[in-house]
Amino acid sequence: MKRTAYYNAAAQMHDQWPIKKALTLSDVDITHPFLTLSRQQVETHILVYMTPQQQEHLRNDGQVGFNAQDDDTGDAYVMKLKWRGSYYNLIGKWGKVVRGKGLDVGQEIKIRWFNGCLHFSVPEQQVVVVPPARMVAAPLVQDHWPIKKVLTSSDVDTNHPFLPLPRRSVEDHILVHWVPQEREELRKEEQVSINARDYDTGEIHVMKLKWRGNYYNLIGGWANIIRQKGLGIGQEIRLRWANNCLYFSVLAEQYVPTASGHDNWPIKKALTLSDVDTNHPFLTLPGKAVEDHILFYWTQQAREQLRNEHQIRINARDDDTGDLYAMKLKWRGSYYNLIGKWGKIIREKRLQVGREIRVRWDNGCLIFSVPE
User: Fold this and answer.
1) Residue 190: helix, strand or coil by DSSP?
2) What is the pLDDT of residues 33-92, one digit of tens each?
3) What per-residue confidence (pLDDT) applies to 4?
4) Which candidate, 12, 234, 19, places its Cα nearest to that of 111?
5) For residues 65-98, b (16+ Cβ closer than 10 Å) or e, as one string?
6) Which of helix, strand or coil describes residue 109?
7) How far is it, in rounded angstroms, from Cα 340 to Cα 338?
8) How far apart are CA 100 and CA 43, in angstroms?
9) Cβ distance 67 to 76 under 8 Å?
């Protein structure tokens, strides 16, 4: 999910689609029909508009029913949103939607919440076909990533590590650059070894591309990549083929940087459902924001301790009340959790989904504020 951590809860316009996703194999599997949506997108663009009763029902029962509408056809459905911890599943009539619309891997679904109803659309003829001309080796262009995918639960499962990619995308943007002998080998052997380079770190991996009919799996070393990069559900991976190598990149969460003076708040975030859950209390903060605006001011020894032990004790102060807390900052790979007394803070400040928290580091202490 690549956006600023700050969210302005303005009314959604009818033609805006804040949630967009390329459908995966599990999304279009009618034997186990459900649509996986990232936690942050759902809590930022759907739950914040639900009634307090709906939010409470979801928090207590783990799921909530509501009306959904296919904006392409006008068909209405009674569906459910099920909380799965780090992501959500849309269930109910999803199998009927898959069959009725003939949904397939790689198609884009767009979602918004409007007037107490979940609206969705799957536009036709979304794929822009690139002419099958052989690529001339040229310097890499940083913003040219023809294949983009939001990672699902199966994509980041280290017990069964593979990354499924839509057949059309692979054939239009990867295989088109291969020589005929390489394509023939893939067709006969159903898999072929390739070099893959992590564009973010420069690290090279020897991997395999495996043909699975309507899609391709990237295997061999994928589990190591998941662990090394701390990949999680909802992150976007970008891929391209250049100079006989598969390049991939997973951007850190983006935010709007500001000067980190005493009166400024460089980290701002709209609280999500998991942020205000007192049963499992923790505040999730974007990795890059923490590293740029908190760890930047730490000593090398403190940073090393966090890296080795994956958590460290810190002092925190509520700028609204002056209360002090002994807390912990826990490293989770691509993000950080603030734990310790967070449950107490939720209860005392009566925090709710959609409220904005502001954070900064000042004089060896984590300062936070939740404006009324």
Assistant:
1) coil
2) 889 898 888 988 999 899 999 988 888 888 999 999 999 999 999 999 998 777 789 999
3) 37
4) 19
5) ebebbbbeeeeebebbbbbeeebbbbbbbbbebb
6) strand
7) 7
8) 28
9) yes
Amino acid of residue 102? G
> Tokens 């639900």 correspond to what residue?
50
Structure tokens at 233: 């559900």
Task: Show the tokens assigned to 150.
Answer: 């939001």
Residue at 21: amino acid letter: K
Q: For the residues of 41-90, what is the DSSP string, one character each?
A: HHHHHTGGGS-HHHHHHHHHHSEEEEEEEETTT--EEEEEEEE-SSEEEE
Structure tokens, 284? 């999730």
Q: Is the pTM of this model over 0.90?
A: no
The amino acid sitting at 88 is Y
Please identify which residue in the block is written with the tokens 């767009």.
Answer: 110
As given in the structure block, the two tokens for residue 231 are: 């990949």
- The tokens for 138 are 């040229």
Residue 191 near residue 209 (C-beta atoms within 8 A): yes
Please name the residues in contact with 25: beta carbons below 8 A apart, sequence gap of 6 or more: 105, 154, 164, 215
pLDDT at residue 174 above 50? yes
**d(C-alpha 361, C-alpha 330), whole Å:** 16
How distant, in Å, are the alpha carbons of 33, 37, 142, 250, 275 from that of 86? 19, 10, 30, 18, 11
Cα–Cα distance measured from residue 156 to residue 228, given in angstroms and rounded to the nearest whole number: 12
In angstroms, the CA 146 to CA 55 distance is 38
